[in-house]
Amino acid sequence: MSAEKSEDIIEAPRSDSRESISLGKIEADNDGEIFKRGEGIEDFRTVHWIHTSVIFLKLIFATGVLTIPSAMYTLGAFPGAINVLGWQFLNTWCALIQGQFRNNHAGCHSIADMGNVVGGKIVKELSGILFLVAFIIVAASGMVGVSTALNALSNHSLCTNYFSIIAAAMVGVFASVRKFEKIAWVTWVGFISVFVAVFIVVVGVTTLDRPAAAPQEGPYDFGYHVFGHPTFAASITAASTIFCSGAGTSAFLPVMSEMRNPREYSKAVTWCMGLVTAAYLSFSLVVYKYCGQWVASPSLGSAGPLVKKIAYGIGIIGLCVSGALYVHVSAKYVFVRILRNSRHLQANTVVHWGAWMGCISAMTVISFLIASGVPIFNYLLSLAGSLAFAPLALSLPGWLWIHDHADYYKGNWWKKVLYGLHVILIVIGLFLTVGGTYGVIVQIKDAYKDGTISSAFSCADNSNSS
Q1: Does residue 262 contact residue 14 with C-beta atoms inside 8 Å?
Q2: Contacts of 389 (CB under 8 A, 6+ apart)
């Protein structure tokens, strides 16, 4: 794509209008942003773009890299790699669309606000519900990851349900930090811990004569395929899992609202998604190449008991921070909805803190209940990907682009092609929503039927090896 065409698509018109508004007794400068700047109020817009990119990395990286290898077993190495590249490209593009749209409409704090601009109140509420569903589910996956780590480190010394309660408490405490600026430092630690843990596993699997979970004597089916032959339900679930690994871009928007300069959003997205795509592709191909069907889910358990303990010991901080970020963004959405246009939104009042802690507690408890009900990592992510992220991260961004480029429908041939491609993007999102949700429901039912999932709130360790 030429520089002229790229600029034509990405650059947003700017508005320099600023006016003074009153929040109770507080005079604040209004540049259209949800969080104001002014004397006597708490400044939320303090996050530098470099910190923003690390927060984005932590939102995206931890869960996806733990599930893609097992999805590759279902699809095969080549289709799996194509899925990684294809979905990551679409997720990156849609993230940039959302940033462009938000700079055009600065009052949008969340994807629900964007839905309100293009479709009115009904679309706003539907988008808000899907946003909450998505991040409550992925927060649950974070709790499953932490409880799995605690199980591994303790040799299953407690009932898994107790570990889930401990995981939920850890996630809730981290999530309660009020500003993204204050949580940014721990995202550095979290990202490094997960990256190192995954790297240790990648190196570890290459040193084994046989996969750790495979029979150690006699012939066995390794299960590595360039092309897999899955059923529709299995293939759409695997594709949805890979898609979901980079689809949490709607969580970027609340972070963008707390950036010092939202115009630097695209830099943070580009760095984040470039690093994530390279890591996903390289790590998952190596783990699947050396483990075949014997890859664990989460994949940190793929290199044997000792490496598993080392990896989980290092990565548990990152898993906890991931769950905390998901709880934080879902709670922040509800918090802003409750206190928007009120002085309590940016004032250190009892109402402010009561609302914030109440939102954190509610999101943590709901995520814990889901984690206990569907305690298998890839199924949780696939369910989130198909049911909520597909419409939020694909269909709605396509609609946002069309809303701000409505004249392209009657433009030159290139503009008409771009318009048509974004219509196709909407259709892809809708197909993945219906097909993916069907597929993962079938997979979950089969898992309960064959005993892979023992029962909700069970003491069994439901981390699997396939």
Answers
A1: no
A2: 134, 243, 244, 247, 248, 250
Give me the residue spans of the domains in the chain. Answer: 44-215+229-450
Alpha carbon distance 437, 443 (integer Å) = 10
Residues 6+ apart with CB under 8 A from 363: 136, 139, 175, 327, 330, 331, 334
Q: How far is CA 235 from CA 132, 206, 239, 284, 442, in A?
A: 26, 27, 6, 17, 12
In the beta sheet, which residues pair with residue 22?
27
Low-confidence ranges of the chain (pLDDT < 70): 1-34, 37-40, 62-64, 297-298, 374-381, 451-466
Give the Å distances, CA to CA, from 191 to 51, 87, 154, 264. 12, 22, 23, 21
| Cβ contact 383:241 at 8 Å | no
- Strand 26-30 vs strand 19-23: parallel, antiparallel, or unpaired? antiparallel
How far apart are the C-alpha atoms of 139 and 320, rounded to whole Å?
9
Which residue(s) pair with 20 in the sheet? 29
Give the rounded distance of the alpha carbon of 464 from its chain centre.
22
Rounded Cα distance between 332 and 328, Å, is 6
CB 447 within 8 A of CB 453: yes
CB atoms within 10 A of CB 43: 15
Residue 410 buriedness (CB in 10 A; 0-12 / 13-18 / 19+): exposed
CATH superfamily of the domain spanning 44-215+229-450: Amino acid/polyamine transporter I (1.20.1740.10)
Going by C-alpha positions, the residue among 306, 280, 278, 304 that lies closest to residue 290 is: 304
Q: Give the count of alpha carbons within 13 A of 67, CB side only.
A: 29
- Please work out, in degrees rounded to the nearest 5, the angle formed at the alpha carbon of residue 58 by the alpha carbons of 127 and 88: 65
Which residues, at least 6 apart from 158, have a Cβ–Cβ distance to it below 8 Å? 150
SS3 29: strand
236 within 8 A of 435, measured Cβ to Cβ? yes
Question: pLDDT digit string (tens) for 215-268?
Answer: 878 888 888 889 988 888 888 888 888 888 888 888 898 888 888 888 899 999
d(CA 247, CA 232): 21
Q: What is the pTM of this model?
A: 0.82
pLDDT on residue 453 = 59
